[in-house]
Specification:
It comes from Streptomyces clavuligerus. By secondary structure, the chain is α/β, with parallel strands linked by helices. Helix content is 30%, strand content 20%. Strand 14 and strand 15 form a beta hairpin.
């Protein structure tokens, strides 16, 4: 394997932050997908760096805007060819990469996975990384089960959580029955989107409007690396899109942080592994001929493991007010807004599977019934996680889910911060595009709602750390210019 290039970001900024953040334990922010505009990675670097933590990050290149942050101690760029254009990242390559980074860091570090690929691989190989990194103690297959679109449908069916009716295609013969059950248009999702190779040119989620379009996608299943899941389309509209962020703990208090979950809870590890390996039940019923059995992954419940139910250290729900692409993509503008139904669904999901760590959930309200449906579960921080930040205990250092996980994994108490409803998160580049883009029905993608006194958190701009914003703007404009040149005239 090619030695890892290092990027010297200069002396990191150090705020004077009181206990409980003075752990003396470094952190590694890990992202394996190629996305230099991922503002969540920058948010994680900043929040830990401002707390006095020595922050390392694995990034796609030395030109990534996050490498310009004064809060970053060292950037470790992935070797050339690490993520091949024709296939997914090999788990063994991930383990080797993390071993090499660990040798550079020189001591055990808290590992914060920022994308599904990182979360799935590090959890699956936690027993091999335990001496080098601190990770949430949980069954190794659980993050992969939740990130898998078909796996999530099965979990929701078993746990009684509202989820759009879905069908996992075994082949083209299942398409007519699926279309009859779900109707058109419908949503097509690759079951394991982290396996999509860059060269395939496939989107993880697509709205399709004809059986022919479904057949065209189904024919690409071999290139995609996972089956195609079809899901009933829920129309968007005002106040339909919601999300939840939470950090959960529950490991044996007497266990060493980062211990192999197979040693601490063999029953839970075996149960979740079996659930991940079994074909999931899809809600409300599989399409005729799909071959999906009428059994769900009820295993993995914390009550079976002896751990006790996970505890929510910090969490909150929010409303998506701008997205990119409009009404269908990532959160460009979000507002902290209590939603008891979303929060109850999140706690029910976590209790059912025994999840530990940071969890990001996406919901959409069914306009026909008013019910909130769980669309996606991401076993890592969402890019807008900094929306849910507040002073610990109401007057101490600021807490968010990344800081909460750091405290928990280093054995410290996590004081509960007060809720801050109305607080706004803004991803400047995507919010501008969304606000200026017309959407169906007239107008633009914006809600027109302004921020209130709870404050605004910007993804890129920070007065103590301005260089990433300028680096992002340069790269953003350069990419736009390159696309304009390639566009047919």
């Amino acid at each position: 394997m090619t030695p890892l290039p290092l990027v010297d970001s200069g002396t990191p900024f150090r705020n004077s932050v009181a206990a409980p953040f003075d752990a003396g334990v470094p952190a590694l922010v890990l992202r394996l997908d190629h996305n230099p505009f991922h503002h969540g990675t920058l948010g994680a670097v900043r929040t830990l760096g401002r707390a006095g933590v020595e922050v390392h990050a694995v990034v796609e290149s030395a030109a990534s805007p996050v490498t310009r942050s004064r809060h970053l101690h060292t950037a470790h760029t992935v070797p050339p060819g690490f993520r091949g254009v024709s296939g997914p990242v090999d788990p063994e390559s991930t383990v080797e990469l993390l071993r090499r980074v660990s040798e550079r860091i020189g001591r055990r570090a808290v590992l914060i996975a920022m994308d599904d690929l990182s979360a799935v691989h590090t959890a699956a190989h936690a027993h091999r990384l335990a001496g080098r990194y601190l990770l949430p103690a949980q069954p190794p297959g659980l993050p992969g089960l939740l990130a898998d679109k078909a796996g999530l449908a099965g979990v929701c069916a078993a746990a009684g959580i509202a989820h759009p009716p879905s069908v996992l295609l075994a082949g083209e013969d299942d398409i007519p029955g699926a279309v009859r059950l779900l109707g058109l248009p419908l949503v097509a999702k690759w079951s394991r989107p982290w396996l999509l190779p860059p060269a395939a040119g496939l989107r993880s989620t697509t709205v399709v409007r004809s059986p022919a379009a479904v057949r065209a996608l189904c024919a690409r299943a071999g290139a995609a690396g996972s089956p195609l899941l079809l899901q009933r389309y829920l129309p968007d509209g005002p106040d339909t899109d919601w999300f939840f962020h939470g950090c959960f703990s529950g490991a044996d208090p007497g266990a060493d942080p980062g211990t192999d979950p197979g040693d601490e809870a063999p029953a839970a590890a075996a149960a979740a592994a079996a659930a991940a390996a079994a074909p999931p039940v899809l809600a409300p019923a599989p399409a005729p001929g799909s071959g999906v059995p009428a059994t769900g992954p009820g295993a993995g419940s914390p009550t079976a493991s002896g751990w006790g139910a996970p505890v929510c250290l910090l969490g909150g729900s929010g409303r998506k007010e701008l997205s990119w692409p409009p009404r269908a993509g990532l959160t460009a503008k979000g507002r902290w807004a209590p939603h008891p139904e979303a929060e109850a669904a999140a706690l029910r999901l976590v209790a059912h599977v025994g999840y530990r760590g940071i969890l990001d959930l996406d919901f959409r309200r069914d306009r026909a019934t008013g019910a909130l449906q769980l669309l996606d579960a991401n076993p890592r921080p969402g890019a807008q996680f900094r929306l849910f930040a507040g002073p610990a205990g109401g007057h101490g250092p600021e807490l968010d889910v990344v800081r909460a996980l750091y405290l928990d994994l280093t054995g410290r108490r996590v004081p509960a911060p007060p809720a801050r409803p109305g607080r706004v998160f803004l991803a400047e580049n995507y919010a501008l595009l969304s606000a200026l883009t017309p959407v169906r029905g007239g107008g633009t993608g914006g809600s027109g709602a302004g921020a209130d006194r709870a404050g605004v958190e910007t993804a890129w701009y920070a007065p103590d750390d301005p260089r990433p914003l300028f680096a992002m703007a340069r790269a953003w404009l350069a990419r736009g210019a390159a696309k304009a040149v390639r566009r047919p005239r």
